[in-house]
Every structure is written in C-alpha cells, then in structure tokens.
C-alpha cells in the first residue's frame, strides 16, 4: 500500500508498512546544557497530575496576580486556564527583561536586499517603540481593551512591534499573512469586526519591491461591501516615495505611522492588566468547510505554553541567537519568533525575504553573520535549500546546536540531509507536530531526554497525552496502524474557541469523540486534531497528513473548499474540484479540475482566468499546478464528485474500480488528458 493512499483515506484502520528509522542521539555536550534533562518530567506531567502540572509552565511568566484556579472546565470545551490570574504579554516579552538586559538585542532584522544593513533592536529600543506605538493606537486610533485589529504586514521588525503594542493595551490582534490577497484580508476584517487595519507600504521578495498598500485599499473596499467599515488605515512606511504615486493615501482614513508617531515621542503606556483568559489574538486557519475560522488564543495559557515550549523543546537560553524562518503571519511566527523567544529574553532573527535569494548560500550567510545557534524551519524550505545548494552550508562558518522542523511530514532522506549538511552533524533536531489551533507543540522529542527518529515527530511533549482512535472511538493500540490522532486532555496553549462561532469549535474538534455534550469533565472532551497518524512500539508518533479537506502547501493550510469557491466565482465555471498532488519542494500542490457550463468552449485563456481568480481571492500560495478543463466530473450515482478518482489521476495512481460511477467513461477521458 502506498503512503499516498494512506494519507488520503478516510478510513482509520489501515496498516502502514514502512520501516522505522534508526535513532539518533543527542551529544553529551548538548544534554549537559539542556534546559530540560531530568526524566522525572514525564511523571510530573502524567495525567494523574493534571491539570496542576501546568503551573510549572505558568511560573515561567511574571504575573500581577496569581490565578485562583489552574483549569476551569465549567464551560467545556471552552477551557479557561489560570483563571483569575492577571498578566500582560507585552510586559512579559519586554519590560521584565529591562532590569538586567536592556542593551541586549531582542530582534535582528535582516532585509532581503541590502545584506549588510541588518537592524539590531535592543530590548530597551523595543520597549520605546512598543510604548510609542501603543500610545498611538490608544490615543490616535481610539483603540481600547477587547477591540480587534487586523494587521496585514510583511516580515519586518514593525510587525512584532505592532503585535506587542496591541497586547500592551489589551487589543486583540488578528495578523493576516502578508502574501494573502486583499480579499482574504477582507474576510478576516469582516469576521473579526476590525475597524482599524494596519499595513505597510511595500516589501522586497525575490529581489522585487512589492506594493503592499494597494491590498489595503482593496481590502477596505471589499470589507465595506460586506458591511464592515474600516475607518483608519495605519501604514508603516519603509520605502518613502517609492510606491506612493500608485497608491494615494485616502484623506481622513489613511495615515503614515511614521508621521503620526512623532506626536508620541517618549510616550509610555502602562500595560493593561489582562485576565489570563482574555483573548490575546486571533489567527485564521483553513478548515473543511466555508470560510477560514478565527482560532482564538488566550493570554495566560497561550503565553505560558509557548514560553515553556521555547524553553524546553527549543532549548532557548537567554544567550542564544535564534532564527525561525517562518512568517510571523502564521502561528509558527507568532509562537516561535515573537512570543516564546521574547518571553525568554532571547535574540530573535527576522528575515524579510526568500531564503535562497539572491543565491542558495543566503540563509547560511545570515547564520554566520549573526552567530545563529538555534535554527527553525519547515520541510519545504529544507527541500528547496537541499535542491538548490546541497553543499552550501559547509562553505559557511556557523554552528547550530539545535534545529527544528515544523509544518508537514519530513521525509527521512531530507531529515538526514538537514542533520548532516545543515546541522553539520552537531545539532539535535526536533520534529514538532502541532497546529494553529494548538498554540504550541503537541508531539516532539524533548531534545536532552529522548533520541530522535527521522520521519517521526516523537511522543507527546510533557503534559500532552495523544491517543489514536478509529472512526468509532476505539483506541488503536497496535503499533503501525493508522487512525485519527487526538489529545486526551486540554492544555494551556489550545484555542479557546472559534471567534464568534462556538458551535463550529465544538463541531470541528470535539463532536466526533465527545462522550457527553453536557459534561463539565475534561476527560469527556478529547481533541480531534484532524490528522492521521500511527504510533510505533517506542511511543513515537508518525504524522501521515490531514484527514479532512485541507491541502498542506509548503506547510501552509489551504482548504480545498476555499480554492473551489474561488474558482466558482468565474462565470463560465459549473463545477470545481481540488485534489492535492505531490510536489518535490512544496510537499503538496493543488490540482484543479473544472467542468464548464454548457456551451462554454475550453481554452488556455479561460484556464488562466480561473487560476488568476484564485490568486486574487486567496493569494499566490493557492495557485493551482494546473487547471484541467474536463468534459465532466466523475460522479457517484448520487451526484457526488469523486475527488478520490481525480486524486489518483493527478498522482498517476490506481483509480480503482470506477464501474459503479454514474459516468465511468469520463474517467478514461480525464486520464488521457492529464497523464498524456
Ligand atoms: O497536518 C499537520 C501539519 O500541519 C497541520 C497544521 O497546519 P497549521 O495549522 O498551518 O500549522 C502549521 C504550523 C504548526 C497539521 O494538522 N503538520 C504540522 N507540523 C507537522 C505536520 N505534519 C507532520 N509533521 C509535523 N511536524
């Protein structure tokens, strides 16, 4: 049975016959310095000690007032962590470090174009910038505790400054990935009822200066059509004069932050004392149906969890220089560029652009220049770096002690290159499995305690108790048999709810396995992650991929329904079906099948129009590998499109028995078209 078939099946019990890899062990040098090297941690975090074990994580933070209750399950599954506690995330990431570390670099910002012009922002400078911007948000934009703000910004130092300024005054930020289109941004503005949009004029990507402000204009227009008025657009200006002629500022609505900030020179803003259970931010992610959902993360639970993960799994010490290549517009960037590392007073690197621009050595030059010793990236980037410059890392003088991979399954061969070429055989690797919803890691090895195994994420991290269930809720205990991976217990980093849609939250993550919908006992609410996985004899989990209609492109989640709905906007389209196709670098790519309305002639031009519509509505990341204009969709007799058959055709697999379909003859026609 091929791996692909396993990934795409919806039936739980399928044996996965692939070999388990050999272990790799951390060096004694690494173990000696590791933040976590006492094996008792697993006992301390056993289910018997749940939920009190998690106070160990909360104690990594500075609280104005300690909590009254570790876990409040009275509104399950909307769990409240460290209930009654008071804290501020911006205080924890900045102010508390000033006494001893104000001159230490908090952020190294590396621009794409001028390699030598790296900005080094100290904790004191970060404090000043965050305070001034927080004052602007409060006194100029009129924002107050509990308001939502949409932030559509590229990778820049101003992005974490903006997020931390929001956190300082208790405003809930909703960051939209900079590469997303205006329309995707508008969806998030409307859903979160943001009346302020924060953006940036432009940024460099792959050597080109991209006009970003233009997206804001469009997003505000679309939002207004959908009933959400944005009355202020705050534009950080990095390239004055370079793009302003194309995108005039709208009087009374658009303001350059750089100009307005002058009025707040030297301003200081007392951090709001937030309840632990107050939301810190929203992060939208793709799901099975409809529009992306706003995962709502709380202040105390989330911050405690990501700080602990950064400390114990990423092994960040205050003296480390840490570089996570993810985009801050995704959860990885929120948790592991901004909140986790800064709460630990580390120096966090932010790189503006493409890891291989202008050449395959760029990433390693950055590592050398900044003395990066902890490195964090995704399989898609590792594959690209390996393909373009397998021998490049050896040319540069850097030494990683620790490396992370995240976002999608990593093939053992790629893992081994990462270990030997990028890590130079000196670094330990953690393969961290988790999700936007989970705030921080679910499965990973603890680097100083357990050996690594290429291709396996590892056991649950301390405090996380995974279980593999079949579709009926029975535990699958036999090693190597795939099922739905669930987490038996809630944990502080998990989403609190789906913004404005509790029912969707319950239905998506709990309905399938909830033992009693009225229960206030956390034991009755196992969390369904939506991935298929196997557990091996040593307790390590191997993640196989999504069980729902989500495609993971370069580690980014895209809903097949989102792409299909974008295609349906084109007038000539009658039906659309998206299937994932394997890709060397990206992991997966969407392949789009289209049936046209009667009488419409297929043409290259039309295919291009459909592809462009998708890029416009979602972003280039969703661009289909190919738009196939097919005579008809293969369908069951009840009229359901057989995506499984299309998937097999796209991936040159076996379509199986199609004779029971309503229109079996079309399968051959499509096959001929696609596989020729
Ligand atoms: O399918 C899993 C995959 O990415 C999904 C979560 O995507 P997102 O919410 O965008 O968060 C990405 C960053 C955490 C998961 O459901 N995934 C994530 N990490 C891994 C992974 N698959 C295999 N191995 C991983 N380490």
TrEMBL record:
Question: What Enzyme Commission number(s) appear in the record?
Answer: 6.2.1.1
In this chain the AMP-dependent synthetase/ligase domain maps to: 95-491
Q: Which Gene3D superfamilies has this protein been placed in?
A: 3.30.300.30, N-terminal domain of ligase-like
InterPro entries recorded: Ac_CoA_lig (IPR011904), ACAS_N (IPR032387), AMP-bd_C (IPR025110), AMP-bd_C_sf (IPR045851), AMP-binding_CS (IPR020845), AMP-dep_synth/lig_dom (IPR000873), ANL_N_sf (IPR042099)
Any keyword Iron?
no
Q: Which domain of life is it from?
A: Bacteria
Domain AMP-binding enzyme C-terminal: from-to ranges: 562-640
What positions does the domain Acetyl-coenzyme A synthetase N-terminal occupy?
45-93
Q: GO:BP terms for this protein? A: acetyl-CoA biosynthetic process from acetate
Q: Name one GO molecular function term.
A: acetate-CoA ligase activity
Q: Does the keyword Transmembrane helix apply?
A: no
Keywords assigned by UniProt, alphabetized: Acetylation, ATP-binding, Ligase, Nucleotide-binding
Question: Pfam families recorded for this chain?
Answer: ACAS_N, AMP-binding, AMP-binding_C
What SUPFAM superfamilies is this protein classified in?
Acetyl-CoA synthetase-like (SSF56801)
Q: State the family named in the UniProt similarity comment for this chain.
A: Belongs to the ATP-dependent AMP-binding enzyme family.
PANTHER family, per this entry?
Answer: ACETYL-COENZYME A SYNTHETASE, ACETYL-COENZYME A SYNTHETASE 1
This one is known as: Acetate--CoA ligase
Q: Which organism is it from?
A: Desulfobacula toluolica (strain DSM 7467 / Tol2)
Protein encoded by which gene:
acsA4
């Amino acid at each position: 049975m091929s791996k692909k078939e396993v990934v795409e099946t919806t039936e739980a019990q399928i044996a996965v016959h692939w070999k388990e890899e050999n272990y790799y062990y951390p060096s004694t040098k690494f173990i000696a310095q590791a933040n976590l090297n006492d094996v008792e941690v697993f006992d301390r975090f056993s289910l018997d000690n749940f939920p009190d074990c998690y106070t160990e994580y909360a104690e990594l933070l500075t609280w104005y007032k300690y909590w009254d209750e570790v876990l409040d399950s009275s509104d399950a599954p909307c769990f409240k962590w460290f209930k009654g506690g008071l804290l501020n995330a911006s205080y924890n990431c900045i102010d508390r470090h000033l006494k001893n570390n104000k001159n230490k670099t908090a952020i190294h910002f590396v621009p794409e174009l001028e390699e030598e012009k790296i900005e080094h922002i100290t904790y004191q400078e970060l404090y000043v910038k965050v305070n001034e911007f927080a004052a602007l948000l409060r006194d100029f934009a009129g924002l107050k505790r509990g308001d939502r703000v949409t932030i559509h910004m590229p990778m820049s130092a101003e992005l974490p400054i903006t997020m931390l300024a929001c956190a300082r005054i208790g405003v809930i930020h909703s960051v939209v990935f900079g590469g997303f289109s205006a329309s995707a941004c508008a969806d998030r503005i409307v859903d979160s009822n943001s009346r302020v949009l924060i953006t940036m004029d432009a940024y460099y990507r792959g050597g080109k200066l991209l006009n970003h402000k233009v997206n804001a204009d469009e997003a505000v227009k679309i939002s207004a059509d959908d009933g959400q008025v944005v009355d202020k657009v705050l534009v950080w200006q990095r390239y004055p004069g370079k793009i302003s002629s194309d995108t005039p500022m709208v009087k009374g609505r658009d303001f350059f932050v750089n100009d307005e900030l002058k009025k707040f020179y030297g301003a200081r803003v007392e951090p709001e004392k937030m309840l632990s259970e107050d939301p810190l931010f929203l992060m939208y992610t793709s799901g099975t149906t409809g529009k992306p959902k706003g995962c709502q993360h709380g202040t105390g639970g989330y911050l405690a969890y990501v700080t602990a993960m950064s400390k114990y799994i990423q092994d960040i010490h205050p003296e480390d220089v840490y570089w996570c290549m993810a985009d801050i517009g995704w959860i990885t960037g929120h948790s592991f560029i901004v909140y986790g590392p800064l709460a630990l007073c580390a120096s966090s690197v932010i790189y503006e652009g493409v890891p291989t621009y202008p050449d395959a050595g760029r990433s390693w030059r950055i590592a050398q220049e900044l003395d990066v010793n902890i490195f964090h990236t995704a399989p898609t980037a590792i594959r690209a770096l390996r393909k373009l410059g397998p021998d490049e890392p050896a040319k540069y003088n850097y030494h990683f002690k620790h490396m992370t991979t995240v976002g999608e399954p990593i093939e053992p061969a790629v893992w081994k290159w990462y270990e030997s070429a990028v890590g130079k055989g000196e670094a330990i690797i953690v393969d961290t499995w988790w999700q936007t919803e989970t705030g921080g890691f679910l499965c990973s090895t603890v680097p100083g305690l357990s050996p690594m195994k290429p291709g396996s994420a590892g056991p649950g991290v301390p405090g996380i108790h995974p279980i593999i269930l079949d579709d009926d809720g029975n535990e699958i205990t036999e090693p190597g048999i795939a099922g739905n991976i669930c987490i038996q217990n809630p944990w502080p980093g998990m989403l609190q709810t789906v913004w404005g849609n509790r029912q969707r939250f319950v239905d998506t993550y709990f309905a399938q396995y909830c033992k009693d919908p009225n229960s206030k006992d956390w034991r009755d609410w196992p969390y369904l992650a939506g991935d298929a996985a196997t557990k091996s004899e040593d307790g390590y989990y191997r993640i196989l991929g999504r069980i729902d209609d989500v495609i993971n492109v370069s580690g980014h989640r895209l809903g097949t329904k989102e792409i299909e709905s974008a295609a349906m906007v084109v007038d000539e389209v009658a039906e659309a079906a998206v299937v994932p196709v394997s890709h060397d670098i990206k992991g997966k790519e969407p392949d789009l099948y289209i049936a046209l309305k009667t009488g419409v002639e297929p043409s290259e031009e039309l295919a291009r129009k459909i592809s462009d519509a998708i890029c416009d509505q979602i972003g280039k990341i969703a661009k289909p590998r190919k738009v196939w204009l097919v005579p008809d969709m293969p369908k069951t007799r009840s009229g359901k499109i057989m995506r499984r058959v299309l998937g097999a055709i796209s991936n040159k697999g076996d379509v199986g028995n199609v004779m029971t379909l309503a229109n079996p003859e079309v399968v051959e026609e499509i096959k001929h078209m696609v596989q020729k």
